[in-house]
């Protein structure tokens, strides 16, 4: 039997990974609040930028938005691997409470800024701790949900996070109407308060599962004491470096994310500059479009889980289908969306598919080929490589946007990035099934060690 067939037969006969429902939903709810605040914070400047750019003297150019967001992501991704290693070595619950609750609360400083320099420094500082959320939170989910349930769990968590973008978009629109010059400051004060609340909720409701406890070979026999035999070691980091699948995912994710970041940073600017809508109307339209992200995240998780149950390469196929549809929808958005209704419809479709590759394909696939004690580090490295590289590309795109406008930027760099990501995915067919099967074999060996058989 070939490696490919062995991986399919072995995985599909053993991997059920049914979640422990009570612990799963409690964890999803607590992490969801943190992700809600995280997502709201990440886009708070982009959504309010048309107002913020006029609040300082002199007014800010479009490229300043890419710079402030770019450096925030670059610095955050530099520190994220440290959060990943810490989450693999220490209590993930404590890391989440500190990272989300303490550092996220510093968003209040952004609302107190009186110059671009102050806003820049405050924005970077308050976002440092949020690099803890993905490695610690998603690592915790992988120890509650089995290999073929992780897409759904990540999709639901991502949907809860997208509701944060929806809330900040609608909230910004209301506040800017009520307080035209000060509304953006109140947005940051609110996000800081919610970050502190999220930290308190995590401290109360999160429970730390044993690492590897959701693996089908181990779920009936693994305890925290047994899991301690397989603790994180620095020398094990070579496992991540040697994974060819992981490197392919990093590169594919970079191009998939660059298109996403481009849209998230400049969608409201497109509406105000190209379509001549006022700021509050643009924020409200963006809030409606975010519903597409929410629905898309849940559906993507269910579809990718079902696809992997059918064939090991199912998540790769799901990613490619979503990327192909994104390109077609973006072309329709640019050339045929002339009315507000058509803009909303095309944008809803783009939002529905735009994050399928990262959240419901790549992240579950990373968890499915990495040892339990390395998943936080691997996911952190993914955020480091994909997020940092994608944002560097977007910063370059922004310079082009200043010269050529947003239409050509979306056309050349949005569609182009997704096309490259689509093509890179073909490489995964040759490596992912074998690495998937290898992890299942290693989990079976651990079961024998723990049970003494």
Describe the protein's architecture and organization.
There is one protein chain. This protein has helices spanning 3-14, 21-55, 62-89, 92-103, 108-111, 116-127, 133-142, 150-178, 183-205, 224-227, 238-242, 244-273, 279-310, 314-336, 340-353, 356-369, 375-404, 406-424, 432-451. The protein is built from 19 helices and no strands. 79% of the residues lie in helices and 0% in strands. The protein has a single domain, classed as Growth Hormone, Chain: A (Up-down Bundle), CATH 1.20.1250.20. The radius of gyration is 21 Å and the shape is globular. Helix 2 (21-55) runs parallel beside helix 8, helix 2 packs across helix 12 and helix 13 (279-310) runs parallel beside helix 16. By secondary structure, it is mainly alpha-helical.
Question: What descriptors fit this protein?
Answer:
disordered N terminus, globular, Growth Hormone, Chain: A, 0% strand, mainly alpha, 453 residues, 19 helices
The main pleated sheet reads as:
none
Helicity, in percent? over 70%
CATH architecture: Up-down Bundle
Q: How many structural domains?
A: 1
**What would you call the shape?**
globular
Spans of at least 5 consecutive residues whose pLDDT stays below 50 are 1-19
DSSP, total strands: 0
**What is the CATH top level name?**
Mainly Alpha
Computed Rg: 21 Å
